[in-house]
């Protein structure tokens, strides 16, 4: 019996330890991250950036090829022949081993080699500018994803607060219903609104996890990492440039714009290189030939020559002409792509600039709306408790509060992201944004400085409006005279 009990304990311990291991294996670990850490990790780990880095190495290798084509080329050719006939038979020769070593140096190729070398150098520049543009794009995506986590957290906080408000109101409605003061419809409607709020909270929690997973994938870290942003919204950014100045700077400096201009130069060089087909090719050539009965012997032949070799395609069935036409068509396409890119750059700057201005205005507007909705909610609760307000009044004010807080959160997110988008549109990296994070002298309040949501039976602090309408002095029958007097 004792042995059975010990065996049962051992099995139980093994099962519990296994469950613990499985649980720990699936548990996400929390990590607080700044925006700068996030950007640096993305630049080091992002797969798209690594792809562009490989393209740079490819372009450098192509440059090496173009440089090599202008240098000396050394070629060895070996032959083995079985011989027959009167001459060879009479001399008892039945095999011949030949070896030819040729060294050549191009002297003139109609400018084709020089054009190819210049084009290859431009190719390296294009690859580097493309890589820089990709890095800036990833930085923007990181900023958007980073602040989407913060935005999702704020939405979750609002949803939690609303659940608390609806729960408190449902308890109040139930107490009034049990006392026979309000009809059952008040209780039922409050319960329906509570259920809807709980559902919205679940969705908000899920959206937060999705935002974190998207962020983790972007910066190349474990998808299970529970990221906690340590930086708040960008609220102290001082932008002094005009829209026209921003567009001019963007057209001049943006990496993808510069890349398209370099591509036009490449296309022009391609035309010149194609026209080299109309001209002769001249090379300096040195050659050594030996032949013998055995490999690497010269008992049959030994000769050498040094001289200049020239070739000229006098007729090639319009091949060169067609190549020139292809290059000219490619130039037109490259020029149109450059013009389209310049227009796109100006459009990107204009959209981001206007979005930034609109978001800043919305921050101030929605901040006031949050304060007003907070006070309206508090008044509705006081009136309902006093028996002069309706159930609909409270439910409407809660809904208005949610709308105001959501709009405020969205305005903060839009403002920060629009600044990042404007920097990207102008060809600037994220460092200027990172430098302005956490500074003093904010032009708008941070999320932590906003008013907290009111809940039933709570004297929530609100900006000046609430000080003017203290509940201890408020006439619950008054519908506006109190504020009018003030």
Low-confidence sequence ranges: 11-27, 438-486
**Neighbour order of strands in the largest sheet:** 2-3-5-6
Order of helices and strands: HEHHEHEHHEHHEEHHHHH
Number of strands: 6
Roughly how many Å is the radius of gyration?
Answer: 39 Å
Distance from first to last alpha carbon: 85 Å
The gross shape turns out to be: elongated
Q: Mind summarizing the main beta sheet?
A: 4 strands, antiparallel
Q: Determine the fraction of residues in helical runs and give it as a percent range.
A: 55-70%
Which structural category do the helix and sheet elements fall into? alpha+beta
Number of H/I helices: 13
Calculate the mean pLDDT score and round it: 83
Strand percentage: 5-15%
Which descriptors apply to this entry?
two-stranded parallel sheet
